[in-house]
Give the backbone structure.
Amino acid sequence: MTKKWRYIPALLCMGAIFFTSSRSGDQLNSVLPWFQQMLPSLSDFDPMHYVAYFALALTLAYGMGRMAFTWKGCLLNVAICLAYGVTDEWHQSFVPMRSPDPLDLLHDGMGAAAAALLVLLIAPLFNRRGSRNYTAR
């Protein structure tokens, strides 16, 4: 059985997503120029959906332990991320100058799916004979 403390990074990631989505449109637009200094091609924060949900899926995979290295775990990971994405979009409907956007949810799912598939693809690296990190069952 997976230890519950392994989900703390995922909860922290969810908290960071919630905090960021609680910022009004004006607050986000005021920090956009700072990010544009580092990433000049960034015109808005839409690409951050990929990054945030990629990170969320990786932290969920860590919490899931061995199950993350299975197709069932991969699908469950993406489903949890999408469910959180739905609640995040709903939450944004209450934030000034923000609104829910189905495309944001698509971007959330794509980031989560990329991370979950990456975890699934690296499973054979941990499934080598004698590895203490992972044993397939």
